[in-house]
């Protein structure tokens, strides 16, 4: 725990300095010729900007070399330079948050940080962390990006930018063992953001943002026992929740178009964390339409440029890792490079994702129509997950009733919220038809009922309308209750089982497994012989011997890359 908290302080400082520099630069470009747009320099947004900046840096650096001491040192130099450039902002931040730090509220935050550190220091790793997250981080540390990594194991081709970020702060080169504390830090950042906003709940006239803040805490309860894992699902869902929450916060406050623009850039970044969240970037439509009407071409170019700068490293890495522009999607087939993952492997991988998400577990059933696989999927869900689906349906009904009531009352349409809700449903549609694992779309599933309840709490109610909407809210609360009850129980059992584990100073290390190896051109390539654990401790490696058997090196060294036989 002590090492976890120390690493959070260090990572937080680096992200804060980087974020201040980025936001100072962007604000200077936005507020050209005396324009005064509020970009809300809150600590949370600074840290988010820093995470995005460091992740982009790590992605680019990995293309040219390994993410070791030199890469980390350069990141520190850039962070220091950014902090010097934004030193006035840092001073104002300290003046703003100093009273909070030295108060009972600050004491509560410290206790909460210690609690999350407990979960981050021990416990079981996410299944996918053992399959490919940990090994990917080690490969970035030892080699950087390797051409054709996807041929060694198809999971490497999923290319989540989060694993590049995690490799920057693994610090294996310094300590001789890897730190895996970044997920816990993101939990802390998001939860403190939620707690700080909820403290004035009773004074808020609108509660859309408050309910989404509760959604962040709800999600934390769901994944808290997996805090130790650098899992790509977790960080993607956190970013989605933050963007939705901050979008609501801006709509209830100053409604700054620059804030909408910057949140749209963050939404584009989220697709690089996990491409299944790609439709969240449609939020950019709202600020784009507004800026075009205002003929603010410079700002349009700025946000568009930021989005392009975020996406280009992601696409280049896709090309180098798999030979495809968007893996595992074969609709864009423009490269014929030696290291390209064969299309037949890609299609099997894509089909497996779909059928596993639909609880079919057989790729021959991938073409089943919705009416055929939907009952199987429904039966494959736990009862509390089925109740969550009920809450989503009830929330959808309530949102529709609220919209109709506003139109009857001739209230002004708030297009920023219409856009947000439309994008959430677009994300849910993609999730449902592609791979409806609950964990892949949990942020969007939670957003629907929580936004509906938030709108209910914010409006004046009378007569039959009050009875109708109140009854639906009651159904939503009852439908969500089994979900949080399940995970409160899980958290309690976790504490009981792990409280005596010896991880109060140093964090639990990655799991190890029995492995064997092949020699290819004098290089050892490892594979798991007992279960799906692709160990961090030996490299390069794969979980699946059959994937290794059908691949080979393109040269005499690992860095030359892998290709299919």
Describe the structure concisely for a colleague.
The chain has 22 helices and five strands.
Key descriptive features of the protein:
565 residues; single chain; 4% strand; three-stranded mixed beta sheet; globular; mainly alpha; 5 strands; two-stranded antiparallel ribbon
Describe it for me?
The chain is mainly alpha-helical. It folds into three domains: 2-20 and 42-322, no CATH class; 343-374; 375-498, no CATH class. It is built from 22 helices and five strands. It has helices at residues 2-30, 43-64, 69-85, 87-101, 104-120, 127-142, 149-152, 161-168, 172-175, 182-198, 208-223, 232-252, 257-273, 285-293, 297-322, 343-357, 370-379, 383-408, 415-434, 438-458, 463-498, 545-549, and strands at 515-520, 523-528, 541-542, 551-553, 562-564. It has a three-stranded mixed beta sheet with strand order 1-2-3. Strands 4-5 form a two-stranded antiparallel ribbon. A hairpin with an 8-residue loop joins strand 4 and strand 5 (562-564). Helix 13 (257-273) packs antiparallel against helix 14 (285-293). The two termini are 46 Å apart. 48% of the residues are buried.
Task: Outline the secondary-structure elements.
Blueprint: H1 2-30, H2 43-64, H3 69-85, H4 87-101, H5 104-120, H6 127-142, H7 149-152, H8 161-168, H9 172-175, H10 182-198, H11 208-223, H12 232-252, H13 257-273, H14 285-293, H15 297-322, H16 343-357, H17 370-379, H18 383-408, H19 415-434, H20 438-458, H21 463-498, E1 515-520, E2 523-528, E3 541-542, H22 545-549, E4 551-553, E5 562-564
Parallel strand pairs: 2-3
Antiparallel strand pairs: 1-2, 4-5
């Amino acid at each position: 725990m002590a090492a976890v908290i120390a690493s959070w302080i260090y990572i937080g400082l680096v992200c804060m300095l980087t974020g201040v520099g980025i936001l100072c630069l962007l604000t200077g470009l936005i507020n050209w010729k005396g324009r005064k747009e509020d970009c809300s320099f809150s600590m949370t947004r600074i840290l988010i900007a820093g995470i995005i900046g460091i992740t982009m840096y790590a992605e680019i650096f990995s293309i040219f070399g390994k993410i070791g001491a030199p890469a980390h040192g350069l990141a520190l130099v850039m962070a220091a330079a950014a902090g010097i450039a934004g030193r006035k902002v840092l001073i104002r931040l300290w003046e703003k948050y100093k009273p909070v730090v030295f108060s009972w509220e600050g004491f509560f935050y410290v206790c909460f940080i210690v609690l999350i550190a407990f979960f981050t220091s021990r416990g079981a790793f996410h299944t996918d962390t053992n399959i490919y997250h940990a090994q990917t981080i080690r490969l970035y540390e030892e080699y950087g990006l390797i051409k054709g990594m996807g041929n060694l194991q198809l999971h490497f081709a999923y290319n989540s930018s989060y694993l590049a970020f995690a490799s920057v702060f693994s610090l294996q080169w310094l300590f001789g063992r890897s730190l895996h504390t970044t997920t816990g830090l993101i939990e802390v950042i998001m939860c403190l953001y939620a707690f700080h906003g909820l403290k004035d709940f009773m004074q808020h006239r609108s509660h859309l943002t408050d309910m989404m803040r509760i959604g962040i805490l709800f999600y934390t309860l769901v994944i808290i026992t997996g805090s130790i894992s650098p899992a790509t699902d977790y960080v993607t869902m956190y970013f989605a929740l933050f963007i939705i929450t901050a979008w609501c916060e801006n709509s209830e406050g100053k409604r700054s178009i620059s804030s909408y623009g910057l949140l749209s850039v963050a939404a584009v970044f989220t697709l690089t964390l996990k491409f299944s969240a790609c439709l969240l970037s449609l939020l950019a439509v709202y600020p784009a339409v507004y800026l075009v009407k205002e003929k603010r071409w410079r700002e349009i170019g700025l946000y568009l440029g930021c989005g392009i700068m975020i996406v280009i490293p992601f696409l280049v890495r896709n090309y180098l890792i798999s030979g495809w522009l968007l893996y595992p999607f074969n609709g864009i087939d423009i490269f014929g490079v030696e290291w390209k993952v064969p299309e037949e492997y890609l299609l099997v991988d894509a089909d497996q994702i779909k059928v596993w998400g639909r609880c079919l577990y057989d790729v021959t059933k991938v073409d089943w129509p919705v009416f055929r696989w939907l009952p199987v999927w429904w039966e494959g869900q736990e009862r509390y997950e089925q109740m969550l689906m009920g809450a989503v349906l009830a929330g959808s009904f309530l949102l529709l009733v609220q919209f109709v009531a506003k139109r009857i009352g001739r209230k002004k349409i708030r297009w920023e919220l219409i856009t947000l809700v439309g994008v959430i449903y677009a994300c849910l549609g993609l999730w449902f038809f592609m791979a409806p694992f609950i964990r892949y779309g949990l942020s969007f599933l939670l957003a629907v009922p929580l936004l509906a309840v938030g709108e209910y709490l914010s409006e004046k109610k009378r007569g039959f309308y009050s009875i109708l909407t109140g009854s639906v809210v009651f159904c939503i609360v009852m439908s969500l209750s089994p979900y949080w009850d399940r995970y409160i129980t899980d958290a309690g059992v976790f504490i009981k089982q792990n409280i005596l584990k010896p991880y109060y100073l140093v964090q639990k290390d990655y799991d190890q497994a029995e492995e064997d190896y092949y020699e290819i051109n004098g290089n050892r390539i490892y594979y798991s012989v007992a279960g799906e654990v692709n160990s961090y401790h030996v490299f390069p490696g794969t979980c699946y011997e059959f994937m290794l058997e059908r691949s080979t090196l393109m040269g005499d060294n690992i860095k030359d890359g892998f290709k299919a036989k």
